[in-house]
From TrEMBL:
Transmembrane segments: none annotated. It comes from Paenibacillus hexagrammi. Pfam families: dCMP_cyt_deam_1. Keywords: Hydrolase, Metal-binding, Zinc. Its cofactor is Zn(2+). Belongs to the cytidine and deoxycytidylate deaminase family. This is Cytidine/deoxycytidylate deaminase family protein. The keyword Metal-binding applies.
């Protein structure tokens, strides 16, 4: 008899399954909204409905510049981001109700970026569980979640379902 999956694994598996719908060549991300043990919504990153996605029209990259203090010296950090897609977390917020989000948990394949973290911080959720890190925004996102009192945890030992992992381009 096989061992039953714990709830974290079960919901993260669903987030990874949602990510398989993404057509972004840089990163496939899936997210699910859960209240208690009840699944309330799923989402993935992709172009707005009816518009060509990255696989059809290519990524729409922009370069962002961030000033960061490193050892008391201001350094310029450059980041490339695709702006053709709506992030999985943003789609999840667009397609779920505020009342369903109150006190809920978001399971997301990847640590939220700064923009998504800000949106989630104001969404009513009380916990974010993620698997893969996102080093570009990690420190400030962790600080934001701590300041907002949102439980923020990484599933380090988690193994995604076979066939759901795509190579991540940072």
């Amino acid at each position: 008899m096989s061992k039953r999956k714990d709830w974290d694994t079960y919901f993260m598996d669903i987030a990874y399954m949602a990510s398989t719908r993404s057509q972004c060549g840089r990163r496939h991300v899936g997210a699910v909204l859960v209240q208690g043990k009840k699944l309330l919504g799923t989402a993935y990153n992709g172009a707005p409905m009816g518009l060509p996605d990255c696989s059809e029209a290519g990524c729409m990259l922009v370069e962002e510049i961030e000033l960061k203090m490193i050892e008391e010296k201001e350094e310029v950090i450059r980041k490339q981001r695709c702006i053709r897609t709506i992030h999985a977390e943003q789609n999840l917020l667009l397609f779920t109700d505020r009342e369903d989000r109150e006190g809920s948990t978001v399971y997301v394949t990847d640590q939220p970026c700064w923009t998504c973290a800000n949106m989630l911080a104001n969404s009513g959720i009380t916990e974010i569980v993620f698997h893969r890190g996102y080093p570009k925004d990690s420190e400030k996102v962790s600080s934001l979640m701590e300041a907002r009192g949102i439980l923020f945890r990484r599933m380090d030992a988690y193994e995604p379902p076979q066939g759901t992992i795509t190579e991540v381009v940072n």
